[in-house]
Amino acid sequence: MKLPNKFFAASLFQTSITFIATVICVGSVVSLQQAQLTAMEQKNTGDYTKQEQSKKIYLDTLKQTPTFGFSNLVGSLIFLDFIQYFGDAAARDQTGYTLNTDYFAAVVKHNPRFVEAYLYLAPATSLFAGKPETTVSLSKKGLKSLSPNIDKSYLIWTLKGVDELLFLGDTKAAQNSYETAAQWAKVQNDETSQTIGNRAKETAVFLATNPDSKNARASSWIMIYSNARDEQTRQTALSNIEQLGGEVIVTPNQVTVRMPENS
Fold this sequence. Notes:
- The protein is globular.
- Strands 1-2 form a two-stranded antiparallel sheet.
- The longest helix has 39 residues, at 5-43.
- By secondary structure, the chain is mainly alpha-helical.
- It has twelve helices and two strands.
- The protein has helices spanning 5-43, 48-64, 71-87, 89-95, 100-110, 115-128, 132-143, 154-167, 171-187, 191-209, 214-227, 231-243, and strands at residues 247-250, 255-258.
- The protein folds into two domains: 69-145, no CATH class; 147-263, no CATH class.
């Protein structure tokens, strides 16, 4: 049955109004919180502890803000604010990275399919906030909304395996994560996915045959190095690889690690 044009126009108008109203609502809350945040920062120049508190209020407010079906938009806004927070070196030198877990939890809640965000938030939470157990917990939660068909979703499994192996010492869980990463990577038909999938499979084999293998640990660090979105994380990974006796080899197509024999 063909709907009358005026019915279609009315429906389209109503949908547009709903969308615009939602954007205005969400934008107003964000703008209000950001204005309050800016005012506090200007009033307390150099007082990074109070800035941290205001950020916490901002995040807690967004957790309670109705999204009217535009949760992904809110998640993206939170992630953009995290990038500013994480990159404020002067403030982080004073207060540390205590809100990394709050940002991670908020993004997973509102936009769990935002794969690119995990690539920043997971290492930031594990390496800088020192909360690998939180990273694993939030990754598990996010993976419930992901599938192998989503571009680069297999990377979440590799990052989870990294935390389980390097920081939590849970070899069995890490092995399972790497095996799953390899299976998911097969679904993505591109060279990068196949390379990372093969590396994940090799790491799972290392863990099955020798849980304390330096090769497995170096392979995990090279995954952090390859996926790092900031230089500090990259240097941390490089340093740990060198401590294991490995050498990072960078080519135009891939990044690999060369380990001594009997590692």
